[in-house]
Design brief:
CATH architecture of chain A: Up-down Bundle
Oligomer: heterodimer
CATH class of chain A: Mainly Alpha
Number of strands of chain A: 0
Order of helices and strands of chain B: HHHHHHHHHEEHHH
Distance between the termini of chain A: 34 Å
Order of helices and strands of chain A: HHHHHHHHHHHHH
Helix content of chain A: 55-70%
Number of strands of chain B: 2
Strand content of chain B: under 5%
Largest sheet of chain B: 2 strands, antiparallel
Shape of chain A: globular
Structural class of chain B: mainly alpha
Number of helices of chain A: 13
């Protein structure tokens, strides 16, 4: 369960946000406006998820889960820092300026990432969807024509592979555990499944970037996502929830009511002391 | 009659085993070598260790809370990542220590039950609130600093599993202390408000950190026996004095001050001395009447209760899986 993050398995090979910041500063890497917008989406996904998962540290059902969910949160935050640092290169902004001083409608995360933790089953359902989606995305993004996106993805995909394993093991355990855990797992999946569709929606930005080979069209990830999550659900003797899809809009700054509270908490201290260094 | 005779033989055999065990134990302690879980050990030694290691484990777990309190509000993403990793390390320390305690014959479940029932103790320092971001610095620098002073000698504790767990814990604690120092250094060189925030945090955490070493030597009844058993290597006052000496040096680099005008180096004893500490407050907090005692325990209880169905599910699933494996093998 959990396992060690890939950064620790391959010391020295891991790309750090500081390395990207240096490349951006020295002009070695400069994203186009489109690539920056795209990196902002992926960075916001990781950041918002890390913020949610961080809440579990000291509140998990077992100490082992405090460690595992903490690890996953750290990995997500690490990806976010890399993507945001790179995105900021187009607008002369740091990761912190982007994280702490943008307003809600300027965030580009999809709705699933900001969904409240709920009970442990809801958190696992969200992790299950997100980690299988991110794995397919990052796996393909390692071949991006944008070298920095490819490098971030190469590091991230190894870590997200562990996240998949963690969530799949828990889906099986909760579904096959007690009556209560099975009911909660079913409920958790029902709660999170409406936000699956948005993850696989193409739009003008992804279409333009797919043509240059920098990005991956989200719609092309769906078949593998369906197949692989379907295998785990079948093994757990669970059905893919039949629920209406939420309309989405996160990629264009239209968020659920949950994000405002999350940002208010995350940004409060940085905004209390604008310009301060920490 | 026969049964009595049998009992006598059994009890004689046990006496002989105890005598052999005690002789071996005494030899190991005299050689400053290590006792391992399967070795014979006096009951009092086992109890002392169990109390100390479980309290230490509980301290790591409760100690996560004041810092976890700031994860969501950390003022930069780098600081957020470092803080998350630090609090996660503390969960890891709790795990090693509970495992070490389990080798003495107590289950983690029982220790956890004692903690949430309010029957077990943990370091009283975690019953103080972490009010500002600078507290993340002061906790790392002072609290983890005091913990390191206490714990480095424990790496040589006579009980093997404890000593080995402490080696790992100490490596990580030294990172924790450095990150705390770095937070304070950054604040001390920041805006006047940031510097004030740092000074205020140091002022609040200084005395509780000094009290982490435990009561003065003349009021510490268990210390002498622990030292005879090579569990404890230095007295509470000795360690406290060393700690004060280290902090005096480091606070200068920070450009902050310690809230104690009576700190001085005694040339005669070659030891650092400090002003009086409020031991009444220490005993009040230890007795459960500190600012956050109720809150800390309630939070642990809530997490434990909320997670009960998850642990039951994991156990039920594991049982079903092992049954399946057996059926398959048959």
């Amino acid at each position: 369960m959990g396992g060690e993050s890939a950064t620790r398995i391959t010391p020295g090979n891991a790309l750090r946000p500081e390395d990207i910041a240096l490349e951006v500063r020295t002009g070695l890497a400069k994203p186009t406006e489109d690539v920056a917008e795209y990196a902002l989406r992926l960075g916001d996904d990781g950041l918002i998820l890390a913020q949610r998962l961080g809440h579990w540290i000291s509140r998990g059902p077992e100490l082992e889960e405090d460690v595992a969910l903490g690890n996953i949160a750290l990995d997500q935050l690490g990806h976010a820092r890399s993507f945001l640092t790179y995105a900021g290169g187009a607008w002369d902004k740091t990761e912190d300026e982007l994280a702490y001083f943008r307003r809600e409608h300027e965030f580009r995360s999809a709705a699933i990432f900001e969904q409240p933790n709920g009970d442990f089953a809801a958190t696992i359902a969200r992790q299950f969807i997100v980690s299988y989606y991110q794995f397919e995305l990052y796996r393909r993004l390692t071949e991006s024509t944008d070298a920095t996106l490819a490098a971030i993805a190469a590091k991230a995909v190894k870590e997200v592979d562990y996240h998949r394993d963690h969530s799949a093991q828990w889906v099986l355990r909760l579904a096959g555990g007690t009556e209560e855990s099975r009911a909660r797992m079913i409920q958790g999946l029902k709660q999170m499944w409406p936000y699956v569709a948005e993850l696989f929606q193409d739009d003008e930005l992804t279409t333009r970037l797919t043509e240059t080979g920098a990005a991956v069209a989200p719609s092309t990830l769906k078949a593998d996502f369906d197949r692989l999550t379907g295998e785990i659900l079948a093994e757990a003797e669970l059905e893919v929830p039949v629920v209406p899809a939420a309309p989405g809009g996160g990629r264009h700054g239209r968020h659920s009511e949950h994000l405002g509270y999350l940002l208010a908490e995350m940004q409060v201290l940085a905004r209390e002391y604008p310009g301060a260094s920490w | 009659m026969e049964a009595n005779a049998q009992r006598d033989t059994d009890s004689q055999a046990k006496d002989r085993q105890d005598a052999d065990g005690q002789a071996n134990f005494d030899r190991v302690i005299a050689e400053d070598s290590r006792i391992e879980p399967k070795d014979w050990m006096p009951d009092a030694y086992r109890k002392t260790l169990l109390r100390q290691i479980s309290q230490h484990a509980h301290s790591e777990i409760i100690g996560m809370q004041p810092e976890a309190n700031w994860i969501s509000r950390a003022p930069s993403l780098k600081r957020k990542a470092i803080l998350m990793a630090k609090v996660q390390d503390e969960a890891g320390h709790g795990l090693y220590l509970y495992s070490a305690a389990e080798t003495l014959g107590q289950t983690r479940d029982k220790m956890t039950a004692d903690l949430i029932a309010g029957k077990a103790r943990y370091s009283s320092i975690f019953n103080y609130p972490a009010r500002t971001w600078a507290d993340m610095g002061a906790i790392g620098w002072l609290v983890d600093g005091a913990a390191i002073c206490n714990q480095v000698p424990l790496c040589r504790a006579s009980y093997g599993p404890y000593g080995r767990a402490m080696v790992r814990v100490c490596k990580e604690e030294s990172f924790h202390q450095r990150q705390g120092f770095e937070i304070l250094l950054e604040l001390a060189h920041g805006t006047p408000e940031q510097k004030q925030m740092a000074q205020d945090a140091v002022n609040r955490w200084y005395a509780p950190a000094l009290m982490m070493f435990g009561p003065p030597d003349d009021d510490s009844p268990n210390s002498k026996q622990s030292m005879a058993w090579n569990i404890k290597r230095f007295s509470n006052d000795e360690l406290r004095s060393r700690f004060v000496g280290m902090m005096v040096e480091q606070v200068r680099v920070l450009g902050l001050t310690l809230p104690d005008s009576e700190i001085r180096f005694n040339e005669d004893t070659k030891k650092w001395e400090h002003g009086p500490l409020d031991w009444d407050e220490f005993h009040e907090v230890l007795a459960g009447r500190g600012p956050c005692n109720a809150q800390r325990l309630e939070r642990r209880r809530e997490a434990h209760d909320d997670g009960a169905w998850v642990r039951e599910a994991a156990a039920a699933y594991a049982a079903k899986q092992s049954l399946k494996t057996k059926e398959y093998a048959a």
